[in-house]
Amino acid sequence: MTVHAPSRPAASRDGDRPPGRPPLILVLPALAGLAFLVLPLAGLLVRAPWSTLGTRLVRPEVLDALRLSLLTATIATVLCVLFGVPLAWTLARVRFPGVRLVRALVTVPLVLPPVVGGVALLLAAGRRGIVGGPLESAFGITLPFTTAGVVLAQAFVAMPFLVISVEGALRAADLRYEEAAATLGASRWTTFRRVTLPLVAPGVAAGAVLCWARALGEFGATITFAGNFPGETQTMPLAVYLALETDPQAAIVLSLVLLAVSVVVLAALRNRWTGAS
Amino acid sequence: MFKRIAAAAALLAALAGCGEVDGASGDGGGETLTVFAAASLTETFTELGKTFEESHPGTDVRFGFAGSSTLAQQITQGAPADVFASASPATMKTVTDAGDAAGEPRVFTTNRLVIAVPKDDPGGVRSVRDLAGEDLRVVVCAEQVPCGAAAAKALAAAGVTVEPVSKEKDVKAVLTKVRLGEADAGLVYRTDAKAAGGDVTGIEFAAAAEAVNDYPIVRVADAPRPGLAKEFIDLVTGPRGRAVLGAAGFRAP
């Protein structure tokens, strides 16, 4: 397996960089910073049990965890797009009192330790939670210890990435197109659908990819809220954690898979969207 | 510009300061003893740590409480611990096998599993047989950690097949799920059920005797404070340690 780092030659695209040699006082700390970020990943690659990689990867429990991770992260991302895009639009386009507070609240999961997010989810959506209690007594639906609970935990931590990305795109978009559509008689919904959404589509796509990658890596909220059961709630990061307890080699292999997926996703993201801006 | 440099310098100084506190040096000539202990020892060792600090003025006892297997991995990866107290000989073995233990580990106490149920007992659990119930939400530790290995052994000895809804990463996580009422029952150490006070009820079961956990303690090779480490182990294995552990529900080895 080869992994391509998301780097590109300095002069390939950016013709607008100033000429001259970069000063050493900037280059040295830059290299140190780069090494700090890359060395742990190199450690993973160096210590990986390459000879047994293939057989370890096709173990049923590994495939189970991978399948579950891909499925839940994808559903979580779809949910985040469905609810996050309207939320981002509201934050960017609607004036209402307390908009700053709402914006701050939306980004809280970004800085909240995921395990705290998991506790909060338990207290809200657990069977004795403010939402979960009524949900169970009325419909018999319980979320902890279910795959749906995994999706919920992932969506909770990943949605801010989407909202921030889409809101940024909305703010950067030229309002005159929307105003022109409005003067031509389009309703706000039509304007959103036919003008705004196509304008910010790259932002939505970039946000969705980030959101997916974050959901894929979610650990703390998942194990706290959804628990850990193979095939039901044990995603890849949870499998990595428990493999590390007894079989570090297996944990390295699982980590490599997650690393590869993340790098591929981010590299694609960089070339397709953010690199173009 | 100068402001920025000053700010950066302050930040660096703060970071350097953090590093020092985190390291073994401590402040003002005092010494820091680092003890890695199984999550189930949280309450008792915290108390013993206070006793130790009182009898060793200027010394700080710093604890790392987590699943024994996590701690064992951290020690074999070079974590700067002085003492390691594990919830099972098997986990201790990974440390001794790696050559990271100074001398022979000593078993200082034992623990056994009980069935923990929430105070209001929504599942109506009376015995280990009830755990096989269809609609009962049972939570256990993952087999990779000592409490999970013990749970599997005890359930096998009881001849009960249980379909848990989750296999948690350590015993405290199981207890939390029971405490919050998310699980109808969980297998935890009797000391954990006791530590949860009135939140959970612990139900003893005979088959738990087949899976008694021995807790070994050892000084870590290359311990930054070998002298203090030895004294702490003496405290734990001595009369004071036995009294504190006994009060929490541990039994003598």
TrEMBL record, chain A:
Keywords, in A-Z order: Cell membrane, Membrane, Molybdenum, Transmembrane, Transmembrane helix, Transport
Membrane topology: Multi-pass membrane protein
Residue ranges annotated for the ABC transmembrane type-1 domain, each copy included: 66-269
Top-level taxon: Bacteria
Locations listed in the record: Cell membrane
InterPro entries: MetI-like, MetI-like_sf, ModB_ABC, NifC_ABC_porter
Membrane spanning stretches: 23-46, 66-89, 101-125, 145-166, 195-215, 250-269
Pfam name, any one: BPD_transp_1
NCBIfam families: Mo_ABC_porter (TIGR01581), modB_ABC (TIGR02141)
Family: Belongs to the binding-protein-dependent transport system permease family. CysTW subfamily.
Function text: Part of the binding-protein-dependent transport system for molybdenum; probably responsible for the translocation of the substrate across the membrane.
Protein name: Molybdenum transport system permease
Native organism: Actinomadura algeriensis
From TrEMBL, chain B:
Keywords of this entry: Metal-binding, Signal
Database matches in Gene3D superfamilies: Periplasmic binding protein-like II
CDD domains to which the protein is assigned, alphabetical: PBP2_ModA_like_1
Keyword Signal: yes
InterPro entries documented for this protein: ModA, ModA/WtpA, TonB_box_CS
Protein family membership: Belongs to the bacterial solute-binding protein ModA family.
The protein's name in its UniProt record: Molybdate transport system substrate-binding protein
